[in-house]
Amino acid sequence: MLLENKTAVIYGGGGTVGGAMAGAFAAEGARVFLVGRTPATLEAAADRIRAAGGQAETAVVDAMDASAVNDHIDAVAEKAGSVDISVNVISQQGIFQPLADISTPDFVAAIGNALATQLITTKAAARHMVDQESGVLLFFGGSDPAHSIPGLGNVQVGMDAIESLRRQWAAELAPHGVRTVTLLSGGIIDSFPDIPEMEAARQGIVNASPFKRAATTADVGRVAAFVASEQGRSIASTQVNISFGACYG
């Protein structure tokens, strides 16, 4: 198993993407800790993992509360003995409008909140990883500077900002043996709400790929597990493109 005896903390673990990552980590032998604010979705994801023979625990924690996040990850480290993988897939508040139509307070708040939760959770994990001289911080979404299209509002700006944060972590943590990797996705179509309004967005993601295909949550989980494993140890301080060629970042 790729992740046997490893400990993974997934913020947003009750969501579609977070749950897929957690399931893939557990299938490869990791003990996973699912964190979020909604007990029902967390437990549903954990139950699926347990039913498949994996190890999963849940905790209701507000990832904007630094004290709560630190208390939780300290408890995980004490219980499991290490913090080997940390990933925050909590979505930012996407405002899909022309920039000219978005109020400054709304724009600033959305980007600020997205950066804040990422900074809080990565700081918490990094403390333990630096002490261990090992660990993997995974990020999701990524930055594609080659493609900009109208109407994305704050969405790509926020992902670009988070990728900049990831690069800074890479510079500071690599000397301590901590890898930072972003999964550059271009959009995961089976994570979208199953409503007619999203069909055009799904098709647009497929059309953007030269293969006319789009990554799924299962693809996300498989790649994340490999990247986080010792077999992926040379993948560091970079993005891994899982967009079927739609993104050029």
Structure, described:
It holds the Pfam family adh_short_C2. Keywords: Oxidoreductase. Belongs to the short-chain dehydrogenases/reductases (SDR) family. The protein has 249 residues and is α/β, with parallel strands linked by helices. It has one domain (7-241): Rossmann fold (3-Layer(aba) Sandwich). Helix content is 44%, strand content 16%. It has seven helices and seven strands. Strands 3-2-1-4-5-6-7 form a seven-stranded parallel β-sheet, with helices on both faces. Strand 2 (31-36), helix 2 (39-51) and strand 3 form a beta-alpha-beta unit. The chain is globular. 45% of the residues are buried. The model has no long low-confidence stretch (mean pLDDT 93).
